[in-house]
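Dear colleagues,

I hope this message finds you well. In preparation for our joint manuscript, I am sending the UDP-N-acetylmuramoylalanine--D-glutamate ligase (Aestuariibaculum marinum) sequence together with its predicted structure, so that both groups work from identical material. I would be grateful if you could confirm receipt.
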Amino acid sequence: MKRLVVLGGGESGVGTALLAKAKGYEVFVSDKGKIKENYRQVLIHNEIEWEDETHSESKILNADIVMKSPGIPDKAPLVKQIREKGIQVVSEIEFASKFTKATIVGITGSNGKTTTSTLTHYILKRELNVGLGGNIGDSFAKQVLEHDYPNYVLEISSFQLDDIDTFKPKIAVLLNVTPDHLDRYDYKFENYIASKFRIAENQTKEDYLVYDADDEVITNWLKEHPVQSTLLPFSITKKVEKGAYLEEEKMIIAIDNNQIHMSTNNLALEGKHNIKNAMAASTVAHLLKIRKQTIRESLESFQGVEHRLEQVLKINKVQYINDSKATNVNATYFALESMDAPTIWIVGGVDKGNNYEELFAFVNEKVKAVICLGVDNDKLIDTFGGMVDTIVETQSMEEAVKMAYKLSESGDNVLLSPACASFDLFENYEDRGRQFKDAVRNL
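The corresponding structure tokens are as follows:
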């Protein structure tokens, strides 16, 4: 009997443990932190051995295979020990994919993953039996065990791709690559780019890579590191032979002499970046033979995802917008780009080596006040202090929202778009977004 050790007792860890047990593995789950009560109950109920608030090396280093949670870095001493012993380390995506023959759509990129994955799933589920998982929602492994859908849309982070071996999606989508998580990649951008491109490393010419042809990082990398996949680029600046492009106000998707035309004026989601997300999702749907009418209707009715440019409330003619999911500078770039009124910007958190330069033009043009929300705000104050009339420091969401309320005038926007991770003051970006919405509702 093979022994699988799962490091991390969260959604992906517990899902993997359940699937492994069902497939005849001896399973042990170990979490250095505290395992949440609901996950603990699942493990107890399924008679899976587990421990939390410690890692017992004697029970871990005798594994045949280790599934580690994407949150645990390779630099962790325990992971180094495991690798030194020659034990295979895999991600949940890698492990679970061995037990399904489903058609997999894998979506990655620095930004837009959740929106594009959710939108793609939203279109496909109208005509196909399809699961949504990966970095979002229910664990992929658990879905393979309980539903074994014939199709999956998986949102995949670079951390999940770092530990694949044979995983290959039928359709891979690479939305964009901008510097993010460099703290996990020895502060080398090329390491992070290589990690994103692993989504295509096992693909053959029968598989597809859908990617942004306007993204120089992607196009330059492809020139130097060609992939086997059939390429389907999308662009909002130039015409492509195969793939998706814009012509006047129309989005055109062209694959094998079969074209879809769609007006971009009717898209439910606003902003240039969302035209790209819609192109990527539509290309996937077209490849999977979804009817044109269904694709059109879906793009016109899709309402977006929580914590991503989510309109919360209008109070005294001031619009409050929750973009807590903007955990890097590029995501905040899109948010500020789409602001069409004077904006009070709430920013800050755990800085992952951010360079704020690309935001300067928007800050000068649109931002009237900056509210810093983080434990350490020095870099923000140094960077933006000279650009705006008002810059203030706050230590809690309630305080930040009250300050925004004081500084705002009729017709303004109040935008939470932190450009940073949330772990200094919040559990995660969802917690941060929910606290923002609660604080706005309590004004």
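For the figure legend, we might mention the following. Residues 3-90 form a domain with the Rossmann fold fold (CATH 3.40.50.720). Residues 272-287 form the longest helix (16 residues).

With kind regards,
E.M.
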